[in-house]
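Readers of this paper often ask what the protein records in our data store actually look like. Such a record has a labelled line for the sequence and another for the backbone structure tokens. Nothing more is needed to write down the fold, since each code stands for a local backbone conformation. The remainder of this section carries one protein's record, kept here as part of the documentation.
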Amino acid sequence: MCDDRTINILFGPPKEKSDCNKMISLFFENRGLHITCGGSSGLIVAKFLGVEVKASLNYEDNDIPPILLIKGIDLATEGIITMQRVLVYIEDYQNEKKLVNKWRKQKDGASLLTKIIIDATNINFFIGQVINPAHQYPNSQISFDIKMNTFNKLLSHLNQMKKKISVKYF
């Protein structure tokens, strides 16, 4: 008997609004945990499911935005800020392991997502390629390029960890 632990991560809305239902339907067709990364992603999935979105008021780490609570979703986090922290935790986990005790104890979105990723054997990514207008200001420290660079670095680490990865871009 195979002990596979599958997770599905939807990270950002699709480039074309007309692809929303297709992206979300494919996301939910897979067994395993369902995780959204990004406030817009959470809102789109909640609308698809016909449920409300509630923000957690738990700020365990002031640098990581709180998680969202969406019925039908196992974990809903903020997007790029959370994913950048997950990348830091995964890099550390593969190398020095100085931060492991921190994220194993905390319940912020980045810590919870890191635990789930470490435990997973199979990871299905659904990557939205919309460019967020809120990130296009000259002084913004968040951009589509930063999102994709962070994601590609994370993919590299997950491949090194021998995770079975599937990526679909929308």
